[in-house]
Amino acid sequence: xxxxxxxxxxxxxxxxxxxxxxxxxxxxxxxxxxxxxxxxxxxxxxxxxxxxxxxxxxxxxxxxxxxxxxxxxxxxxxxxxxxxxxxxxxxxxxxxxxxxxxxxxxxxxxxxxx
Length: 114
What we know:
Blueprint: E1 3-7, E2 10-12, E3 18-25, E4 34-39, E5 46-51, E6 58-60, E7 68-73, E8 78-83, E9 92-98, E10 108-112
Parallel strand pairs: 2-10
Antiparallel strand pairs: 1-3, 3-8, 4-5, 4-9, 5-6, 7-8, 9-10
């Protein structure tokens, strides 16, 4: 059974960068479309980015387009989210999951603040 664990969050100043990792175990990621999501307190979960397993196509929410890049390393069974030019409004917990979604993990906290 596929299990995903997020890591790489932290505290960064506005304009800074972070790279989130979504490490898989229990199965290979090759056959799964993987998405990154975020959920601020009191708000619904937002789809941030997605990487298709079938053709490698990617999706980005308008709020992160041009700043975030999703990538996949099948050899490491890991999907990454490179986040550049971070803004305070990017502060929240980030999750990765399959698309359609399975069980949700603990996520990784990203805080953008000076």
